[in-house]
Design goal:
Helices cover 41% and strands 18% of the residues. The strands form 5 sheets. A 6-stranded parallel sheet has the order 5-14-13-10-12-11, sandwiched between helices. Helix 9 links the parallel strand 11 and strand 12.
Length: 307
């Protein structure tokens, strides 16, 4: 910020301006206009447009926008903001999204529900516990995927429902290359143990994928979320396990759904029924709606010739 006043012209580019909600916008515009539109301090921005949401006594964990906040913020930033969505200006392929629901057995669901309600459960003589809400969310997401780590960082198998579903999807691709996104290391290990797959980690891996030499490629959203061009190698992406991050989710999808893709893109989500998976996909869709509203608001002004 010390250097910013010396910069005469600055342009900020992002594909995910508010991936986790309106709170994200403050930092971006603080750099662009040095606080002219949304305030110089994050505290001032919060007090003006938000109210406490989740809290524990005096400690506030999250905030939610006031009723007028969305329109007011869009109006504040509209004079220096332009939205140009790729599908509006480029010849983009058809995009199909799909949710494949898997069902836990009665015994598997009992294990899941015990951890959710009691914060502790015994699996194969190992005790799995969660010390707080964040840890519980993480453990439940692991269980939904099929395994969970114990205190020694060894994973314990809970079910194979998602692996079975993944097998069906791979077979259903009829030999076409498939890209699989995973979140936990035990997802990676279990997938590797069952299928002939290859991680996309090096430039050689990416080259081989784009040349069609890899049938099933594995990517992690944190390492493959930005900058990779994978559209030449395939058009099917399977989310084996999900992430709460809309930014990583959208950027991972954009590795194959981008300019230069010549095939219909199909994005599958393997969702464990009645688990936290359903909360995650709902949250991603909700965050996306909020971001789309922002993009549409500034795009509308552009179309009217106001910018």
């Amino acid at each position: 910020m010390k250097v910013r006043p010396k910069v005469k012209r600055m342009v900020g580019l992002t594909g995910t301006p508010s991936s986790n909600g309106l709170m994200d916008l403050w930092a971006e515009f603080r750099i662009l206009d040095m606080g002219e539109r949304l305030g110089r301090f994050i505290g001032q921005y919060r007090e003006t447009y938000f109210k406490p949401d989740k809290r524990n006594g005096a400690i506030v964990y999250s905030y939610k926008p006031l009723a007028f906040a969305e329109d007011a913020i869009y109006e504040k930033i509209s004079d220096i903001t332009v939205s140009m969505k790729s599908e509006d200006y480029l010849d983009m392929p058809v995009l199909i999204t799909n949710e494949l629901i898997v069902h836990l057995s009665e015994k598997e669901r009992e294990v899941y529900e015990t951890l959710r309600k009691e914060l502790v459960v015994s699996i194969k003589d190992k005790e799995i516990d969660a010390i707080n809400a964040a840890a519980l969310s993480n453990k439940l997401l692991q269980m939904a995927s099929g395994a969970v780590y114990d205190e020694d960082k060894n994973f314990i198998q809970v079910h194979d429902r998602k692996l079975d579903a993944l097998e069906d999807l791979i077979e259903g691709a009829n030999g076409k290359p498939v890209l699989v996104a995973y979140w936990f290391k035990h997802d990676l290990e279990r997938i590797k143990n069952r299928f002939d797959v290859r991680e996309l980690k090096t430039s050689k891996d990416i080259k081989d994928w784009n040349e069609g030499n890899i049938s099933v490629g594995l990517i992690h959203p944190q390492s493959a979320g930005h900058g990779l061009n994978l559209q030449a190698g395939g058009s099917t992406l399977i989310w084996f396990s999900l992430t709460w991050s809309l930014e990583l989710y959208q950027q991972t999808n954009a590795r194959i759904y981008r300019q230069g893709q010549n095939e219909t893109v199909v994005i599958h989500h393997i969702i464990a029924k009645g688990t936290i998976d359903e909360n995650v996909i709902k949250a991603l869709n909700k965050k996306n709606v909020g971001q789309e509203e922002l993009l549409e608001a500034v795009k509308a002004r552009l179309e009217k010739g106001d910018l």
